[in-house]
């Protein structure tokens, strides 16, 4: 078996040919005979009681399928964690654009007019539109206190450190909502037959989440719900939990009409009605020694969850655990909470709480450096976690990560020291101010604590009589390379060419539940199970004497043929087993939070143009330790894509809210970077391995989202001397801050350097 | 209540799609994108925004890159439209396809048809583009997955190979 | 897609006479559509109340570019790609060619037309400030005949123009007298491409022996109409450029403009940036003036 290593090589994307020829099939490319189109009638108020629903004139309502909450066969909720989110609002609405009614018709245009012909009267209730208002609790909109979830992490004796501190550094940091902006909008097709139940085809990340939600909604057993993932045009978390909602809507219409129903959102609806990244506020109060070491601190982290709990508890969890970053905290108290507001529920978005709390921390580290009078580099060196030390949740770092050296390498790759000197000189003249900033961070891969045990993932591998091996997982491909990497792992485990491995389209009647495609867990955890299951095929054939230790693909094929002729099928399954040494206390929020952390140091070089107050990132270095690079081209693509999205998070992407509703819900006015807006993004990897991951891999999908925003804002402060603690940082914000600095001036006075 | 608006009549449209003469009846204000996808089954062009911002609906109209979501079908009479499906005989397609695959230019793939057409258009006008030409040529095609870096590499590689040929 | 194509009419007479007689017979009932980069966006969003459209895309009379010794006449349906690629336009009217490169990505430049940009009359339209400083003249045509109007007074209010209900813009003519000028254009948007402008400057200047011989300044997105900054120009002509002149110019700009807070930006930001852009241009002019 002299096949060169497949894992670690940049083999071509498994479904790449279809994608570059336009043959790839996304849900809107599909139609079924007799299919109707479905649409959602949504709330126009942020909070209120539904008084009347009128079906206006000019529409023949008999032609339409109409579904209300009363038509829900099972439970009127989108089953997720707390099950507090209704599928259709029954008596009360709690956010703008909340779904109330569903309509279906064969003619898309008649359908749209029918939606417009429905008028709903509400008895308004006082809405809550900000975290702060929610915290005041003068209006209760959720539970008894508006608090969707809270956590408390305590390590050491925080209350005793203040008196020893040479410095006490405080800071408050904000991050805004962010729209995932996958280029393919949310969409599903649902059909219902009394004998088979409900089938849903959709653009989604987690077929089994949708499966679970439909079972509860439709009151159907497991084998009467089928969910199929179509080619998915981007997700980033925006298709983690939301598809359960749109799938539920299509399913209800299909059940009522007996016909297949397609619901595809247009961009305006997708932006205004679906989930966004949770806005956040972090308050740091840190006790620092004379030299700049963290003695201890208090971190208060609050996120805006929107109107229903949905995934806020998990986003909060990750934000909580990452709030201390890659540093050693001898003692810390981390108090976190998710507040309810009357806005569409916020949800999963790459990074999932960590970009928010890490933004605050990495800005705060630069602040600490300033107060102490040392450099941003020094303050990090003094405080980096070392092997053998514990994190804020008291997880011992067992691997030989040397963050000091990682930092050195990042500084060298970016030319940090040379540039810092040069900028100090060049900034004396002219309206263009240059700056350079860094961020050091980590990202835990997989579900927190006992989460993976709870998921109990199952993976299958099946060999056919022609020797083609098929991977059976519910893990969804949506650009990140799942199909490719899992096939590489199977190929390597079996000693077969990559071309001989296929991967089944995720269909809940065909593939087992390998868990949701989230939390940067797929390569690491599912990959390891694929490896086991693939080895299982080999073992089965070896045990029956059909295959030796070494074999050619032809011999493998012959063995499969013979085995299947005798036994009917050749399948092997592997189930997740939690590593014995991972212990997590859910009550105290303490212990081994994640099976593995990836580590990174990012460096951003910016120009601040004082003529236009705009920030351009000129160069970006992304250096990370990720266990093992399974596919260099795909891995690099994940990093550059994540960095680009995070540059958007930092400098461009602002959600403009009006009474809880997104006002700028068009691509013209919600600004993501184009090809002429981004710097060269230079990506470098280190590999320390990982005992818990396939081939030593750690998760990388979300890591690149955590670092760029603070690195950039650190660089902007370096360039301008002005402290910005809120993102997105738009030119208007920069202008106002600079303008405030040079007070007593009207806007006609120059606030820029001159040539 | 307004009386129902007067219905406009359909018109005859006769044009070339991927080299094939195509005749159809359509309302003149049907978007070219919808005609391609729904009438002609050419689903390679995608609707990402409906506003001419994302470029995922890009096609070539008489050799010019356009956003098909902004073209009324009546204006395509007598014209030649090329979609991603029609590129398989174009001499750029093979090196371009390969380059996109090799370099990681396609991740989720939804922007890819439009991106490839924009690239074809660019390389026809500038067979030896420098990076700033590539950036400008693709500025109307949004990609949320790649951060563009590997797309630039793919375009540069395809250009090199075509030139080398 | 929030409009029903069945409710719309689009007729394509294929020649100018056909279009004009339609506009004359039913004034204000027919919306001309050329490349559609504005109209089709409104239509798709369900925000196009007018149901009858007349096609200008295929009217040859509107696509000519006539180069005369002292003027150039640009057909209203010329696309931005055509303008960018035209030798005389890119050499003698670089502000217009540059504005063309700002107007959306390549796909939108291939369809967007100069006439459409003018007739749509958004104060944020990229090409309008350049037409102001070049002293453009519009030929308006109808069944009643032809008339020429100076572009400077064409815009009468927010999205309102002098165009009569039965009229079309036939061509835009520019005097060929700016070869000796220093030109400067800068657009400030939310990103570097495909952005609606927050502030946009088109500027021309002539400097001799350190003194400003002539200066022409126009700004977009800072008022309901694109603005020619005549007061600022008068302040500057005949003067030597120093920092107090630049400050005075900046102040006069801020006094003249009427920017607003909107979904994209703020009035204060626009004011400050408008002043900065003019200051930047004057610094550039001063530098050019010190060269031989």
Largest sheet of chain B: 5 strands, mixed
Find the structural class of chain B using helix and strand composition: alpha+beta
Runs of chain B in which pLDDT lies below 50 for 5 or more consecutive residues are none
Shape of chain A: globular
Structural class of chain A: alpha+beta
- Average predicted local confidence, pLDDT of chain A: 96
**Element pattern of chain B in H and E:** EEHEEEHHHH
Beta fraction of the residues of chain A? 15-25%
- Described by the principal axes of the CA atoms, the overall outline of chain B is elongated
Most residues in contact: chain pair: A-B, 57 and 56 residues
Strand order, largest beta sheet of chain B = 2-1-5-3-4
Q: State the CATH architecture of the largest domain in chain A.
A: 2-Layer Sandwich
Radius of gyration of chain B: 17 Å
Note the gap between the termini of chain B. 66 Å
CATH topology of the largest domain in chain A: Aldehyde Oxidoreductase, domain 4
Largest sheet features of chain A? 7 strands, mixed
Tell me the count of domains of chain A. Answer: 3
Low-pLDDT segments, ≥5 res of chain A: none
Pick out its properties.
A: 755 residues, Aldehyde Oxidoreductase, domain 4, Aldehyde Oxidoreductase, domain 3, seven-stranded mixed beta sheet, 28 strands, globular, C: 292 residues, alpha+beta, Uridine Diphospho-n-acetylenolpyruvylglucosamine Reductase, domain 3, Enolase-like, domain 1, four-stranded antiparallel beta sheet, 25% strand
Describe this entry's structure for a reader.
The complex is a heterotrimer of chains A (755), B (165) and C (292). Chain A has 755 residues and is an alpha+beta fold. Chain A is built from 19 helices and 28 strands. Chain A has three domains: 135 residues, Aldehyde oxidase/xanthine dehydrogenase, molybdopterin binding domain (Aldehyde Oxidoreductase, domain 4), CATH 3.30.365.10; 189 residues, Aldehyde oxidase/xanthine dehydrogenase, a/b hammerhead (Aldehyde Oxidoreductase, domain 3); 322 residues, 2-Layer Sandwich (Aldehyde Oxidoreductase, domain 4), CATH 3.30.365. Chain A is 29% helix and 24% strand. In chain A, the strands form seven sheets. Chain A has a seven-stranded mixed β-sheet, with helices on both faces. The model of chain A has no long low-confidence stretch (mean pLDDT 96). Chain B has 165 residues and is α+β, with helices and mostly antiparallel strands. Chain B folds into two domains: 76 residues, Roll (Ubiquitin-like (UB roll)); 75 residues, DNA polymerase, domain 1, CATH 1.10.150. In chain B, a hairpin with a 2-residue loop joins strand 3 and strand 4. In chain B, helix 2 packs antiparallel against helix 5. In chain C, helix 9 packs antiparallel against helix 10. The longest helix of chain C is centred in the last third of the chain and has 24 residues. Chains A and B meet through helix 1 and helix 16 of A and helix 2, helix 3, helix 4 and helix 5 of B.
